[in-house]
Amino acid sequence: QVQVVESGGGVVQPGRSLRLSCAASGFTFRKYGMHWARQAPGKGLEWVAVISHDGTNIHYGDSVKGRFTISRDNSNNMLYLQMNSLRAEDTAVYYCGKGGTDYGSGIYNWLDPWGQGTLVVVSS
Amino acid sequence: DIVVTQSPDSLAVSLGERATINCKSSQSVFYSSNNKNYLAWYQQKAGQPPKVLIYWASTRESGVPDRFSGSGSGTDFTLTINSLQAEDAAVYYCQQYYSSPQTFGQGTKLEIK
Predict the structure, then answer these.
(1) Cα distance between residue A110 and residue B98, in whole Å
(2) Chain A CB within 8 Å of residue B101 CB
(3) Less CB within 10 Å around the terminal CB: N or C of chain A?
């Protein structure tokens, strides 16, 4: 079945870096755009970033632009989120999501499915 | 950036009744070249990741009960849940994917009375 599984979360000090990974299976990974979204404890959803099926088109949310980098490895069906200069307000569960359709570049898509998420806590 | 606003923030509806959640975007999310509204609805139950219910504003995801329906176009959208069941208690979000940054509404918490 179609599945995405996040890993790499943990506790990190402000200003430090962390890299999240997302392993995809059950679908032709190279055909789909992929997203990261996050949810701070007790709060709503926030879209973080998207990467096109071939990695050539990337967009970021305003709050992470310039600090986070999304990337993918189509040979190994992996999605990544490199998070630098982390702040307390980056504390959240980070979700990986497959784009809902393989239409076009895969950028403008809903997320389906979502992974179970990985918790990132930024604290000294 | 497109701002997406949901209403109400929370609602309590009796079992078997209808629930209606609204979503308004600050700009149109209708793309005339393909005649589609770039709006999705998600359901998030406690302790679980979100799950898509509706995309293209009105297309029901496979496996989603037909008591869930989406409507609207341009800037105003509605999620309707008929014949409410106990398992429909959740937080519901809309998302515009028309332009980046893509944005979610703030969420609507649905309680079943």
Answers:
(1) 10
(2) yes
(3) N
Contacts of A51 (CB under 8 A, 6+ apart): A33, A34, A57, A58, A70, A71, A72, A79
Please give the single-letter amino acid code of residue A101: T
Query: Is the CB of B14 inside 8 Å of chain A's CB atoms?
Result: no
Contact B55 A59 (CB under 8 A): no
The span from the CA of A80 to the CA of A8, in Å, is 10
Tens digit of each residue's pLDDT, chain A (124 residues): 999 999 999 999 999 999 999 999 999 999 999 999 999 999 999 999 999 999 999 999 999 999 999 999 999 999 999 999 999 999 999 999 999 988 877 889 999 999 999 999 999 9
Q: In angstroms, rounded to a whole number, what is the distance separating the alpha carbons of residues A50 and A33?
A: 7
Compute the distance between CA of residue B59 and CA of residue B79 in angstroms, rounded to an integer. 11
Closest-CA distance of chain A to residue B112, Å:
20
Nearest to A45 among B97, B99, B104 (CB): B104
**What is the CB neighbour count within 10 angstroms for residue A29?**
21
Token representation of residue B96: 């515009």
Does the bond joining B101 to the residue before it have cis omega, within 30 degrees of 0?
yes
Query: Which residues of chain B neighbour A45 with C-beta distances below 8 Å?
Result: 42, 44, 50, 93, 95, 104, 107
